[in-house]
Description:
The chain has helices spanning about 40-50, 70-75, 95-100, 110-125, 140-155, 170-185, 200-205, 225-235, 295-300, 325-330, 340-345, 350-365, 370-385, 400-415, 430-445, 460-465, 485-495, 500-504; strands at about 5-10, 15-25, 30-35, 55-60, 65, 80-85, 105, 110, 160-165, 190-195, 205-210, 215-220, 260-270, 270-280, 285-290, 310-315, 320, 335, 420-425, 450-455, 465-470, 475-480. The chain is an alpha/beta fold. It has two domains: about 5-225, Rossmann fold, CATH 3.40.50; about 260-504, Rossmann fold (3-Layer(aba) Sandwich). Strand 13 and strand 14 form a beta hairpin. Helix 5 (about 140-155) packs parallel to helix 6, helix 8 (about 225-235) packs across helix 17 (about 485-495) and helix 12 packs across helix 13 (about 370-385). The longest helix has 16 residues, at about 170-185. It starts with a strand and ends with a helix. Bound molecules: adenosine-5'-diphosphate (ADP) and magnesium ion. Magnesium ion binds next to helix 1. Magnesium ion binds near residues 41 and 42.
Amino acid sequence: MLLEIESLTKTFLGMTALDHVNFELAAGEVHALLGENGAGKSTLIKCLTGAYHRDAGSITLNGAQISPRSTSEAQELGIGTVYQEVNLLPNLTVAQNLTFGREPRRFGVIDNRTMKIDALKMLEGYGLDIDVSRDLGTYSVAVQQIIAIARAVALSGKVLILDEPTASLDTREVRMLFDVVRRLRDEGLGIIFVSHFLDQVFELTDRITVLRNGRKIVTEKTADLDRIRLISHMLGRELEGEEGEGARRPTEGRVGAEPILTMRGLGRKNMVEPFDLDIHKGEVVGLAGLLGSGRTETAQLVFGVRHAQTGTISDQNGPLKITSPRDAIAAGFGFAPEDRKTDGIIADLSIRENIALAMQARRGWARPIPRAEQDRIVADYIEKLDIRTSGPEKPIGELSGGNQQKVVLARWLAMNPRFLILDEPTRGIDVGAHAEILHLIQEITAEGMSILVISSELDELIAVADRVIVVRDRAHVAELVGEEIVSDNIVRAIATSKKQEEVA
Ligand code: ADP
Ligand code: MG
């Protein structure tokens, strides 16, 4: 085996990002690494390329244990990486980029002629017809990516890691890239391919490994897997055995009532096709779909993060004007986005400050909330949500993921929205906190708040949702209610490709 990873483990602040993961890569294979956001793909790659240092486990390359300390060390060992964002310098020429760090010299001076010759040699066989003395930035992203691959292969030459390489390429460019990848595979390179485009994965790869929540779920030959089984692995529900679904909450009384919000034809080009959505009082609506399907984009349109080009949102009193998150908050909406670190919380502020800020924003800055009242309310939330902390003054950044998420919830609850959107509310938190957050969602809705929850975990949606909307290829394609909400139905709706639907 070219590369063997055994029992790789990596934790961040007590959160396990990789949990005894095994992975192997053969020479001459393209191996897909799949999993929803937060599954651990990037962490695994960073451990391989020396960007992170593993806590435990071993990495063996050509029979020798390695522990790269930096990307350049990994490169010297034979492991090269190309990211979606090309990590080269657009203002240098193609030749300079290719030979960067090992420029040919004559009498101590960079030898431009030899450099060009070297560069042309490195690009041989890649099918590019380009001028290596032009600036890299003058070429398309696809060409730049192939140049980045050529550099990585020349420097490393054993393992090539492609992390979401096709995200910004058009169909023709993807073909071009795939031709290059196939040729390198045939020359004996081992290639790890990270992508959330399943069609591409089925077309290009020889084997697939699925990660979920830091664990390896399965490694199989691509030819032996079909979309339904693959998606089941990714979203965490096998089709056989629906045990545990008895935990579903009863739906009576919520879905039938008058909606508190009616969305009609809401859409934006290249984001989400126009959709209708009603939200009822005290209801939990789940949004199911794969990464990139249009789940988060739906939430962004509803909350005014992105401008809807078509459609309306109304409540009992008529149309609402929502063109920004500020409008959405004023209309009584809340949105706890997926990435707590960048959007949700302010890491240096304390628990008290985070919650107080939200309340203050709601009531206007003209009437400051007295400190004693802040303390009382914050203590109340810490108790109600069981936030584990040594005290209210602790900076959020020092809490565990689960407790951070509870503070995010507390902030929104303090603003008392009528409609709260939660994007992946349990991502990256431990099992105990996971169950508590689901329980909280139930409690909040019992008091009349309505929730839209986006989740990559079927179990989670099945446990809390009154209705599940399935999103696929940027469109809302199915709605399941009550008894229909079983993983089998959700996975099938996600897995059906457009082509199959036309045939049916
Ligand atoms: P993927 O690439 O599959 O989306 P990641 O490897 O980026 O997943 O993340 C796995 C988990 O590790 C996530 O819960 C993420 O929040 C966490 N994580 C990744 N990098 C860091 C970091 N530098 N600090 C803290 N947590 C991290
Ligand atoms: Mg990643």
